[in-house]
Structure formats: structure tokens, C-alpha cells
Amino acid sequence: MSLRPIKAKKIYEMIAEQITDEIKNGQLQAGDRLDSVQQLATKYQVGRSAIREALSALRAVGLIEIRQGEGSFVKKIEHDLAKMILPSVDLLEKKDLKQLFEIRKMIETGAAKIAAEKRTEEDLERFEQVLQEMRQALGDGKLGEIADIQFHQAIVKATKNEMLQSLLETISETMKAAMQEARMTYLYGDQEKLTALYNEHKKIYEAIKERNEEKAFQSMMDHILGVEKSLFIP
């Protein structure tokens, strides 16, 4: 029998787990403000850098939000379904990313199809604005990343389904931190891939604009598969 090596937990992971437990058992409620970084460092007797890493991990999985100049606050998880898919605060491994991509394929392709049916003129204006920002950001990886996220958020918003919006927001927050470096390395560092990404999003938009549900579904599937391949996920 082969034994798997035991993974030693980092300090920030242990702190993040303790805060997560406080949220789960009700000690911390939605909307509650967490102690300052210095106060938490004193409480857990660790350095401030470990606290910052723990807060970043909690933010990545959608448990807290960090407001500039105000502090960190516990987020409200709207639906039990969103809770079910929240992973641990450990850094996501390749198998975790693969599973998250599988979820995206199931959810976002359906969302694109529904958006093609229910989209409004206001939705189209939102898509056009984001696409314009994406085109202008072709040479700026960071701005391109923001526009990319906004495009996918616009699709879900166009479905007029609040539960779906909440669920996808949770998935996106979880993926964001883990994928950021990979996206910058494999996607945004290559002008050809940048242009291809823009064209994929434009194709999805055109299908939604035409109210072509099947085309919207397939265009989204092609896009997600392409990103998955670029990230070397087999």
C-alpha cells in the first residue's frame, strides 16, 4: 500500500481555518467586521503577513470582502448551493482547477443560452462597453483580466436569475486568486492568445445579440475549453 505524504499546513492556512470555523458556528455573522490585521496578529500571536495571507485566502473563497479603508467583513452567502461548492482555503491544486472548470462548463454554457433568450437592450449595451474595454486592454494583462471577469458577470446578469448570479460569483472568487498567476503567464503574456480571447468573447456576444441560444451555448463551451487548454489542464 502506498502512503500519501502528509501536507504540513502553513500558518496562514491554520488561521484561515479558525476564522472559517467562527463563521460556520455563528460566532461571526454576515456583515460583521473582523478585527484589524494588527489585532488579529496579536490574537493569534503571528506576524501581520500571515494574517494578510489568511484574509486573502478567505476572500478568494468568498467568505469575506475587503473594503478599502474600512477593513474586512464577513460576506453573506445567499444560498446553500453556494456553500456546498466552497473548497477549503488551501491553495487549489490542478485537480481542483479541473473540477472548477467542469462546473463552469455546466453553468456558464447554460447561462449563455439563457442570456440569448432573455437579454435586453441594456444588457447588450453592457456587453458592448465591456468588449470595448477588453479591446483597449489587449496590451494590458491586468485590465484585460478585469474586463474578462466583467464580461462573464454580464452574461449571468442577463439571465435575470439571482441564484445563478450568486453561485457563479462564488466560483469566480474561488478561481480568481488561484488562476491569476497562471492566466498572466499563459494567457496575457501572448498577444496572439489575447486577440483570440477577445474574438471568443465577441463571438459569444454576437450569438446572444442574435438570440441564437445554441450558438451562444457552443461559443461559450469553445471559449472555456480553449482557456482550459491554455492552462495545460489535461
UniProtKB/TrEMBL annotation:
Assigned keywords, A-Z = DNA-binding, Transcription, Transcription regulation
**InterPro entries tied to this protein:** GntR_C, TF_FadR/GntR_C, Tscrpt_reg_HTH_GntR, WH-like_DNA-bd_sf, WH_DNA-bd_sf
Task: Write out the transmembrane intervals.
Answer: none
Query: Which parts of the sequence belong to the HTH gntR-type domain?
Result: 9-77
| Source domain of life | Bacteria
List GO molecular-function terms, semicolon-separated: DNA binding; DNA-binding transcription factor activity
Q: Does the keyword Ribonucleoprotein apply?
A: no
For the keyword DNA-binding, the answer is yes
SUPFAM superfamilies xrefs: GntR ligand-binding domain-like, Winged helix' DNA-binding domain
Protein name from the UniProt record: GntR family transcriptional regulator
